[in-house]
Amino acid sequence: MRAKLDKFENEIEKSADEYRPISKRERLNLESTLNRIRKNKNVNIRISEAVLEGLKRRSQEEGIPYQTLISSVLYKYVTNRLVDEKAIRKTLQMLSLDK
Fold first, then answer.
1. Against a cut of 0.70, is the pTM above it?
2. Which among 26, 33, 90, 98 is least surrounded, fewest beta carbons within 10 Å?
3. Nearest-CA neighbor of 45 among 82, 71, 77?
4. What totals of helices (H) and strands (E) does the chain contain, helices first?
5. 66 and 72 in contact (C-beta within 8 Å)?
6. pLDDT digit of tens for each residue in the chain (99 aa)?
7. Using CA atoms, how far apart are residues 66 and 47, in angstroms rounded to an integer?
8. Residue 66 and residue 56 in contact, taking contact as beta carbons nearer than 8 Å
């Protein structure tokens, strides 16, 4: 009896012919990248109770765990994707006054 494949597994089966071997160097580069992405480190920080309560409240509004929210904010900060909404509004206001 053959096992019944789900949709995801069927897609893998369909694309099996598209497999192409890669060099050992390419494989090592891919594995290195994946290992860096997968690694999580635990960090202990001191944070005020008021800030922690604010983070927990915002995480509930967003529907995600507060530690995930903290990690997301830090990730956005280090990748220059964290934006200051007030600064953006001020810039937009200034631009509209120039017209």
1. no
2. 98
3. 71
4. 5, 0
5. no
6. 677 888 888 888 888 788 788 899 999 998 888 888 887 888 999 999 999 999 999 999 999 999 999 999 998 999 898 988 888 888 898 888 876
7. 13
8. yes
Q: Among all chains, which residue has been given the structure tokens 């949709």?
A: 7
CA distance 27 to 44: 34
* Residue spans per domain, the chain: 45-99
**Angle value at C-alpha 90, between 88 and 95, nearest 5 degrees:** 95
Which candidate, 90, 54, 86, 88, places its Cα nearest to that of 73?
54
Q: How far apart are CA 59 and CA 82, in angstroms?
A: 16
Instruction: Please check whether residue 84 is in contact with residue 75, taking contact to mean a CB–CB distance below 8 angstroms.
Output: no
d(CA 28, CA 30) in angstroms, rounded, equals 5
Tokens representing residue 4 in the block: 């019944």
Residues 6+ apart with CB under 8 A from 75: 81
Q: Alpha carbon of 88 to those of 3, 77, 97: distances in Å?
A: 55, 16, 14
